[in-house]
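> forwarded from #structure-qc
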């Protein structure tokens, strides 16, 4: 994965976003373990506005993995390009 040489603008923006991010709601159920968890939609709902307010966008891409599963990669990009 190619990353920025510097995160001098991204790091403070992440701090701003992190200060306002609330926990994702655990509203999905796993009947096998009889538990609840935060599904991907709940996680996105918990972080998207705070990240966007700090000029950070996230992009998620899938790639194949072994045994027919998929990997999910999340990339954070600041408006500065970092």
């Amino acid at each position: 994965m190619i990353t920025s040489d510097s995160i001098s603008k991204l790091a403070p923006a992440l701090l701003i976003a992190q200060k306002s991010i609330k926990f994702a709601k655990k509203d999905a159920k796993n009947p096998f373990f009889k538990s609840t968890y935060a599904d991907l939609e709940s996680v996105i709902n918990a972080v998207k506005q705070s990240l966007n307010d700090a000029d950070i966008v996230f992009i998620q891409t899938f790639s194949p993995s072994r045994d027919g599963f998929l990997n999910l990669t999340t990339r954070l990009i600041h408006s500065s390009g970092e």
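QC bot note: The mean pLDDT is 94. The beta strands are 28-30, 35-37, 56-64, 70-78.
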